[in-house]
Design goal:
With about 500 residues, the chain is an alpha/beta fold. It contains 19 helices and 16 strands. InterPro entries: AB_hydrolase_1 (IPR000073), AB_hydrolase_fold (IPR029058), AB_hydrolase_sf (IPR050266).
């Protein structure tokens, strides 16, 4: 277990989990040991977590001066750890009460912050008040739960001054989680066991915060900031989290559906997708119709744009080789559609939903008139959009795109593979149902695609009926049909030939 000596001689411990670039994580509580953070839902697959045990918690020593538990005085501990790790800048994550500590660190050391992730953060440091009405609104969201009435009554007793929090803790603790199942109950018990309650009272001691000065300092923080709130959390509510995000010049707000105060416990995969996308310098996000879409960008900003849309079960990384080559002359955008990669997985999947994702993506980023290259499902979404709004698309490439004839034989129920997937499994049965019985109007409107179109077929090894794919090309006015004998994954199996076809079509270089 690694340790270091902080400014006043106190020995502090930290724990390393995972591989990759370090993410310094400070626990909340206030004053809980870092153990309750675990691997943050599997974030260790993307970053190495440096989990600090605050002074007097976990494996860290207690200080000689109890007054040093005060939040503002622990900023020096975080800075000492940065120096110990030999990092010029740190990516910093703070949860709950340590959101205040992270805010104070960013205000005092803005040049040392590479990025700031605030998860269900405390907001006292900036003077945002979490009110009883906030909590009443959050509590009301859980009205259907079997523990709701007892918990609501317990909250009311504390607000009326008839009980303190320790007396009612067992009744109100389910409200901290999106679902009060065995995993949440185990986590809550373990987190409480790691708390230093005496230190917690000193954490918020008078003089800890100077909101006016801190707010002014945060307005100068140029590092990217993610404020992640749980839909059901009362402290802070999503509305208060939005107030916090608004204090920074470069912040984004994410609200995790169905989550409480511990979003990595409520839905680990949703939490990891959001945070990993934020922390990855190659990934950006945009919200379309309430769905956060992740995307990757390459190439000069002033170059003509081209948008790459992956197939079912894939994501933007599938285009890496193609994107790298196209970026020599193009601004390349590769998007993760809903339910895929690092985008939100909201459920409700259909070709129409993917079409709407693409439309919203083009509009939100000001890419109307961009060339669009779609593979399989992504090509279907692009074709449907071109039928409806051809003005949004410059040139259109449909690689191995289903021509919307009923499958013969139809696909039966598919069995989900074991383990974690890079996409949301309900995408499969939802789109299979549409492929088995597609809307006839979809293929009936191919003639409405009034943009230059290239149809790329994969030849005999493809699972797409090549005769029907040729029929689709014949129905699109002026469309070209190119067959590259590669099977369904033309752009990955035969990238050189694929790029040559794009170049002859006017996308990329010959």
């Amino acid at each position: 277990m690694p340790m270091f000596t902080t400014y006043d001689g106190t020995r502090l411990a930290y724990h390393l989990r995972g591989e990759g670039e370090p993410l310094l994580c400070i626990p909340g509580g206030a004053m809980r040991a870092s153990e309750y953070l675990g691997d943050l839902g599997g974030l260790t697959a993307h970053r190495q977590l440096v989990l600090l045990d605050l002074r007097g918690t976990g494996d860290s020593a207690a200080p000689d001066d109890p007054a040093s538990y005060r939040c503002d005085r622990q900023v020096a501990d975080v800075e000492a750890l940065r120096g110990h790790l030999g990092l010029d800048r740190i990516d910093l994550l703070g949860h709950s009460a340590s959101g205040n500590l992270a805010l104070l660190y960013a205000a005092r050391h803005p040049d040392r912050v590479g990025s700031l992730t605030l998860v269900a953060p405390g907001v006292r440091a900036v003077g945002i008040e979490v009110t009883e009405d906030d909590w009443r609104s959050a509590v009301a969201l859980r009205a259907g739960e079997p523990w709701y009435e007892e918990g609501r009554a317990a909250f009311e007793r504390t607000w009326a001054g008839e009980a303190d929090w320790d007396e009612v803790r067992s009744a109100i603790r389910p409200f901290a989680y999106g679902r009060w199942d065995a995993a949440a109950q185990w986590h809550e018990a373990a987190a409480q066991a790691g708390a230093n309650r005496d230190a917690a009272s000193a954490y918020y001691a008078e003089g800890s915060f100077e909101p006016k000065a801190t707010t002014a300092a945060l307005a100068e923080v140029t590092a990217p900031v993610l404020v992640l709130a749980g839909e059901y959390d009362g402290g802070p509510t999503p509305a208060r989290a939005a107030e916090l995000a608004a204090l920074f010049p470069n912040a984004e707000l994410a609200v995790q559906r169905g989550a409480g105060h511990y979003p990595w416990i409520d839905d680990a995969e949703a939490f990891v997708r959001t945070v990993a996308a934020f922390l990855d310098p190659d990934v950006r996000t945009v919200t379309v119709g309430g769905v956060r879409l992740a995307y990757r960008v390459r190439g000069a900003e002033a170059a003509p744009p081209v948008v790459l849309v992956h197939g079912r079960g894939g994501d933007s990384r599938d285009w890496a080789q193609i994107a790298e080559r196209l970026a020599a002359t193009r601004r390349v955008y590769a998007v993760d559609l809903r339910g895929h990669g690092l985008s939100d997985w909201p459920g409700g999947y259909s070709f129409e939903a993917f079409r709407d994702d693409l439309r919203g993506f083009l509009v939100a980023l000001g890419l109307a008139g961009a060339d669009v290259v779609g593979h399989s499902m992504g090509g279907a979404a692009a074709a449907l959009l071109a039928e409806d709004e051809p003005g949004l698309i410059g040139r259109l490439v449909l690689e191995e795109t289903p021509p919307f004839f009923p499958l013969d034989p139809p696909r039966g129920p598919a069995e989900r593979p074991e383990g974690r997937l890079g996409f949301d499994w309900p995408v499969v049965p939802s789109t299979d149902a549409q492929l088995n019985d597609p809307d006839p109007a979809w293929r009936g409107r191919f003639a409405a695609i009034a943009v230059p179109t290239l149809v790329v077929a994969g030849g005999p090894a493809s699972r797409i009926d090549q005769k029907k794919l040729a029929w689709m090309a014949s129905r699109i006015p002026g469309a070209r049909l190119v067959t590259i004998d590669a099977g369904h994954l033309v752009h990955t199996e035969r990238p050189a030939e694929y790029l040559a076809a794009l170049g002859e079509f006017g996308i990329g270089v010959l």
